[in-house]
Amino acid sequence: MNPPAPGDLEELKQEETTRPQRKVTRQGKRVRRVKSKRVEMKEVIGFLSLELEKCIDSLVAKLTTVRLLIALAASNNWFLHQLDVDNAFLHGDLSEEVYMQPPPGLNIHNEGQVCKLTKSLYGLKQANRQWFEKLSSYLTFVNYNQSKSDHSLFIKRTATGFTALLVYVDDNVLAGNSMEEINCIKELLHKKFRIKNLGELKYFLGLEVARSKKGIHLCQRKYALDILEETGTQGCKPSSTPFLRDTSPLYKMDNYLDDPDLCFSINLLSQFMQSPTNHHYRAIQHFFRYIKSTPSEGLFFAADSPMHLKSFSDSNWATCLSTRRSTIGFCIFLGSSLISWKSKKQRTVSRSSTEA
User: Residue limits of the Reverse transcriptase Ty1/copia-type domain (predicted)?
Assistant: First the structure.
């Protein structure tokens, strides 16, 4: 007995056809995953790599843009809402010819025929790109302008207000001073794509958002606790510093934490993953102890912050003992709100602190 077909098949548009010669027919499968305390089942395709298949990039929101939008919302007392698009990838229109074996639960009139996909499906390399193109063209149609600095940001200005929509695949953030316009774009998107209205912004891209009269606080408490659980260090002794000065680094954690006081230590720790020693292991243990002491610390965007852009930069000289290369870094503030930062090891060796 075939399992019940997931909701994807209701969205999936296909044409029954005979497979042309020299065309590959892909086999789909069903994948179950737990998401936000609920189980989802998706029909996926493309999990088997094909020769000569191109890797296709798609645009997603930059974290700097996320922080900038939240800082502006805090300073201007804007509304901050979020929404999720149901089965987002299934809305994209395919420009390539993709053939698929009929999945269980889909009735085919003639035996031996296959499905020619006219819409994208989860697992296809181009699915994300096709969805973004479909969404961006519709937002442009309803008078939203695409930002040139971050193409995932869409802005609409009217005589009475300002509205911004930030896109990260199927997760979207809405900010603006007009609740009427925010509700209007929600209704338009729901009619076109069917969305889930998640209300005020609480959790986005691993960032926990807490708002008060004084401003907006961002932290990654859940991620921090998940790291401690994965590494079995929940019972470690807390530490007040993220990094020991006399230790060298190791450990892959760049996919987790995005706090300015942690980024430099993570940068150092990641350089010794290939051949770590006990010395490096002690350094990462100390880092976990710091995470234990500061799980809820993060960034604060004050409501009374002035709209002045400030930037600072600095570099050290020949501090890498193995290469003698220097490290340069910068941070950018919007008023008192930190919105961007980076540190990077220079490619060449500087002969003096002036060159560094």
Answer: 57-244
